[in-house]
């Protein structure tokens, strides 16, 4: 959890976040150049430069991709990052660029709620889809012969954690590629490539950018041939980030370590408070020592995330609780500086109880946030 320079001589997380992706300083030029709005670039003669057409590359993307790569794989060589219009665009780019009819893919059965739609589309293309829960490394049991293993750890919204390195080793032994959805952890909480994964994929909409005003996704990979296929997929479908979104994301990364540390510390305090309430059940937060995921999370995560999940006795109780909150917005998504919470079952895609709450802890004063939660719990009681 320390931000000090580590044993490998790398600078600390805060320093890397503040400096990530910045160009060499030029006198009288801004530290972070503004967004480049261009559909095309001057291109006389042969195509030899990096920028020709706005669907393929953009200088603002380049700086952001460099920044994310420096966070996901600090000091690593031969690693490439590509940014996308959304997290789902990034997820789709890996799955649909690496799989062919007749291949098998292993997905988490408890992952992000859009994955069932992805499964249906994969199966329509003749790809075999196998699923297993994140907890207990259950995906190992259905891995044989698969072309790709998709891991989501911690899982959303249940917050289960698997042993990424163990799963990676087993997958690679069988010739499979491994992608890890790193959205909930962020690159400051977990670095999948250092755990052996081939791809680290995330929605930059969430805590990476942290202000609830940008849709963004990215893929970081160390297999350059596989990443070339991801880049080709992005070109074909045009799932590109706008330059303004990319610039906003890069600007926001400078405060990532400050936000993550504040939100993680407050999330732990919130979890410790909620575990004392008799009406709260199935409380999950990997940072709690008694959480079922804590042991393995403590071995592979540097920070435990900003999301806390728990269940209230009934749907009505959960809705009254959400209505009573004053500092916490009833909204979807997570990772923003303003706390949010929602009854996840309202979407219909998650196998959770009617009273299940996913809460994203923001950057409010911890004491104020805890007081708001306790007051709302009291006011919403039967």
TrEMBL record:
Residues covered by region (Disordered): 1-22
Superkingdom of this protein's organism: Bacteria
Broad EC category: lyase
Residue spans crossing the bilayer: none
UniProt keyword Lyase present: yes
SUPFAM superfamilies according to UniProt: PLP-dependent transferases
Cofactor(s) for this UniProt protein: pyridoxal 5'-phosphate
EC number: 4.4.1.1
GO molecular function: lyase activity
Record keywords, A-Z: Lyase, Pyridoxal phosphate
Family from the record: Belongs to the trans-sulfuration enzymes family.
Protein name: Cystathionine gamma-lyase
């Amino acid at each position: 959890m320390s931000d000090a320079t580590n044993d490998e001589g790398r600078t600390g997380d805060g320093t890397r976040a503040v400096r990530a992706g910045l160009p060499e300083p030029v006198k009288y030029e801004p530290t972070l150049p503004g967004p480049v709005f261009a559909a095309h670039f001057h291109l006389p003669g042969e195509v030899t430069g990096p920028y020709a057409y706005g669907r393929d590359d953009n200088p603002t993307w380049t700086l952001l991709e460099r920044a994310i790569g420096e966070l996901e794989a600090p000091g690593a060589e031969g690693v490439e990052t590509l940014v996308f219009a959304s997290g789902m665009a990034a997820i789709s780019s890996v799955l649909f660029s690496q799989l062919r009819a007749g291949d098998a893919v292993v997905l988490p059965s408890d992952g992000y709620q859009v994955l069932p739609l992805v499964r249906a589309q994969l199966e329509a293309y003749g790809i075999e889809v196998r699923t297993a829960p994140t907890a207990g490394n259950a995906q190992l049991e259905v891995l044989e012969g698969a072309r790709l293993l998709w891991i989501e750890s911690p899982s959303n919204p249940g917050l289960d954690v698997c042993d990424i390195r163990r799963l990676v080793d087993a997958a690679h032994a069988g010739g499979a590629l491994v992608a890890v959805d790193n959205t909930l952890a962020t690159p400051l909480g977990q670095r999948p490539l250092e755990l052996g994964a081939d791809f680290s994929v995330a929605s930059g909409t969430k805590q990476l950018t942290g202000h609830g005003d940008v849709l963004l996704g990215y893929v970081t990979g160390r297999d350059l041939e596989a990443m070339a296929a991801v880049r080709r997929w992005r070109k074909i479908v045009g799932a590109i980030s706008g330059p303004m979104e990319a610039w906003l994301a890069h600007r926001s990364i400078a405060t990532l370590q400050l936000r993550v540390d504040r939100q993680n510390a407050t999330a732990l305090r919130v979890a410790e408070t909620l575990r004392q309430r008799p009406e709260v059940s199935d409380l999950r937060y990997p940072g709690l020592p008694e959480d079922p995921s804590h042991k393995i999370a403590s071995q592979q995560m540097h920070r435990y995330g900003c999301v806390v999940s728990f269940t209230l006795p009934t749907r009505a109780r959960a809705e009254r609780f959400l209505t009573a909150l004053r500092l916490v917005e009833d909204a979807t998504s997570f990772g923003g500086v303003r706390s949010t919470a929602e009854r996840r079952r309202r979407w219909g895609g998650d196998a959770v109880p009617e009273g299940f709450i996913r809460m994203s802890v923001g950057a409010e004063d911890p004491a104020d946030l805890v007081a708001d939660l306790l007051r709302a719990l009291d006011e919403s009681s039967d």
